């Protein structure tokens, strides 16, 4: 399709959320948006999709993936040369809100780019949904002006350089002691000590500067992140090498405890502010993407409350309420996601993989109850628990569901609940006494008669 | 430095080496002390900002993610709302939600040691440790209130009373692997006692009692408290029957 060629494609997660670049952060989104350009025939047909603004791109995703032929695509903000302010006129009050921006395209008009001979075309964004287009426009302008993508390039190309130049991030101290041992004799001991002191003073100063007020911290954020990383590394290496002080150990263990949960961070959590009316829908998709790893660690089934904690931890200050989480989970039925919410009769709610679903468990129970031994004596919940590797209460739950599906039948005796394979479907109503040569019924007869 | 021969020279060199080493150690110590000090400042400042400017931070997605990164790196909990008047009175605001997340986190982190059963008092102390800045502000009652907010997410998290103590159970019966371990233990004799479970699996008494009680409720265990040694025996007909009854049949 033309979309694939003209605009760079966007990778989507299994639940249909865009995969963001490193350092890219989602800022706002609008539903039912058309992108059109009259001047350019090669511009793809992008009708009623979800428009997501990030710090780096404008991402357009078709709203219903099955009906449209165009793939999700993105316009890099770096290719935008101008954003027109929205016209206020009488007509605009009745039509769908729209705003326009100028996009530079390569000379042959086949792709986005700002090479030599590139020209500009005007692209119109038509907002047909109910979203707040003014707020989106404001964010769009802000993100475009912030030019975050440029600083990325600088950092990646000269990361080693910038550390030395900026200096205030405590300079080249990471190798401080190690290199100083080599230069000990040449620079003189007092020289090293002076250098150390200068370094600490500058760190102190930059800390003071950064934490004057919120604006100062915002402008120095990047530097502070680097400093934080350095402190962390030193702290960790310090605790490894010096096993003396107890305070160090305490710090280390605390660090570990937090690492455990905070390591999987969500850089762009879906919030009510960015997603507006699509909040629960987008939250639901993000949760489905996120929950995959914790679910794997927990072995396919995880308590909903555990997810509440881990998910909120990954979101940082953007807490969601238990009610929102529950709603997000219950929306999964509508999307094609690999996870599902399961409620037990006891009121416990868990999230499980669809592959971990009943069918697979039933199949395993069936093989369990058709072994010669168990054909004769049946199985109890604890037998099932031990063979399936799950808790007895869960096993009982599975057995009861299997019973209600007609796979098992129960026997209540002084030994307690025992379950047997249900042979009734095997028996032919027209010939009650005839036994087929093969099948479970025949195996059962063999097994039971052998024991007598 | 010119190398001088003889024992005196060697002694000098050794002394110089010692001096250098001493100095190096000193510098290293000062360096760690300084770094700790700076780290403390960094942490407390971040905590203060998280509390004061929460709404401003949340408004700017790009800065928010950087702020979170800083918090993560130096180990600051970005959840630090004060209880405030309205939270105290009506239970609204972020305070109880944040507390809830912290409580679940502590339960998760300590689960390998205690099997998802934690004393409310211990839990409360750990929460206070987390929220160093307003030490003492979080009471057991606050914890109970925060836990009750989690009710919406199903009954997997509950407060149970064992004797005078209150315990918080974070693992629902359906996901509790403790029961499997008891069943395995019971396979040897067909029964277990509380003491045996505690000793063999090195659990706390609350954990063992709770697990055995659940198994009783589930109908998997039968209690026998009339034995000569006066200790309750928990019999598991379900595990013993296969081996014993089949054995008897043969």
TrEMBL record, chain A:
Keyword annotations? Cytoplasm, Endosome, Protein transport, Transport
* GO molecular function, a single term: phosphatidylinositol-3-phosphate binding
Location in the cell reads:
Cytoplasm; Endosome
Supply one GO BP term. protein transport to vacuole involved in ubiquitin-dependent protein catabolic process via the multivesicular body sorting pathway
Q: Does the keyword Cytoplasm apply?
A: yes
Name the InterPro entries on file: GLUE_dom (IPR021648), PH-like_dom_sf (IPR011993), Snf8/Vps36 (IPR040608), Vps36 (IPR037855), WH-like_DNA-bd_sf (IPR036388), WH_DNA-bd_sf (IPR036390)
A Pfam family per the record: Vps36_ESCRT-II
Q: Kindly give the Gene3D superfamilies that the UniProt entry links to this protein.
A: 6.10.140.260, Pleckstrin-homology domain (PH domain)/Phosphotyrosine-binding domain (PTB), Winged helix-like DNA-binding domain superfamily/Winged helix DNA-binding domain
Domain named GLUE N-terminal: which ranges?
10-156
Would you say which domain of life the source belongs to? Eukaryota
Name the family the entry cites: Belongs to the VPS36 family.
Known partners and oligomeric status: Component of the endosomal sorting complex required for transport II (ESCRT-II).
Q: What is this protein called?
A: Vacuolar protein-sorting-associated protein 36
Q: Which species is listed as the source?
A: Ziziphus jujuba
UniProtKB/TrEMBL annotation, chain B:
Q: Which UniProt keywords apply?
A: Protein transport, Transport
- Per the record, what is one GO cellular component? ESCRT II complex
UniProt cross-references to SUPFAM superfamilies, sorted A to Z: Winged helix' DNA-binding domain
Task: Tell me the InterPro entries matching this sequence.
Answer: ESCRT-2_cplx_Snf8, Snf8/Vps36, WH-like_DNA-bd_sf, WH_DNA-bd_sf
What processes does the entry annotate via GO biological process terms?
protein transport to vacuole involved in ubiquitin-dependent protein catabolic process via the multivesicular body sorting pathway
Please report a single Pfam family linked to this protein.
EAP30
Entry annotated with the keyword NADP = no
What does the record list as coiled-coil region(s)? none
Is Transport found in the keyword set?
Answer: yes
Q: How does it assemble?
A: Component of the endosomal sorting complex required for transport II (ESCRT-II).
Tell me the protein family, please: Belongs to the SNF8 family.
Q: What does this protein do?
A: Component of the endosomal sorting complex required for transport II (ESCRT-II), which is required for multivesicular body (MVB) formation and sorting of endosomal cargo proteins into MVBs.
Name it.
Vacuolar protein sorting-associated protein
Record organism: Ziziphus jujuba var. spinosa
